[in-house]
Design brief:
mainly alpha, Rossmann fold, 3 strands
C-alpha cells in the first residue's frame, strides 16, 4: 500500500481468461477503496492469442471504469525467448514485434 500511495502509475498486466480478469479487477477495487486515485490504475492485456481477444478484454475492462491500454502483448515464443535471455520484449529480433512492444512502453509513458 505504501508503494501504491507513492507510485505515479500502477500497471496491472492481465490475461484474457476470467481467472485473470476477475482477481485483477478485485485488486484495483481494493486499491481504490484504500484511497488510491483511480487515474493511477491501468490494465495492460498480456499474452493474447489474437486481436479479437484484445477487443473483448478492453470492452470488459471498460465496464469496470478502470483505464485499459489500447496496446497489448501477444503470446509469442520470441518474447519468451528474449526474456529468458534477460532482455526486454522490445529487444526481440523481429522488427514488427519490437515495434509493438515499444508502442506499449510509449503509451505507458504518455499515460503518465
Amino acid at each position: 500500500m505504501e508503494i501504491a500511495q507513492h507510485a505515479n502509475l500502477i500497471v496491472q498486466p492481465t490475461g484474457a481468461s476470467r481467472a485473470d480478469l476477475v482477481p485483477a479487477v478485485k485488486e484495483f477495487n481494493a486499491l481504490k477503496e484504500a484511497g488510491i486515485d483511480k487515474k493511477k490504475l491501468l490494465f495492460v492485456p498480456m499474452r493474447l492469442s489474437n486481436q479479437t481477444e484484445a477487443q473483448i478484454i478492453q470492452e470488459y475492462l471498460k465496464k469496470t471504469g478502470y483505464a485499459c491500454s489500447p496496446f497489448y502483448v501477444m503470446e509469442k515464443a520470441s518474447y519468451k525467448q528474449i526474456q529468458n535471455e534477460g532482455k526486454t520484449i522490445a529487444e526481440v529480433k523481429y522488427k514488427k514485434l519490437a515495434k509493438q512492444a515499444k508502442k506499449l512502453v510509449n503509451s505507458l509513458l504518455d499515460y503518465l
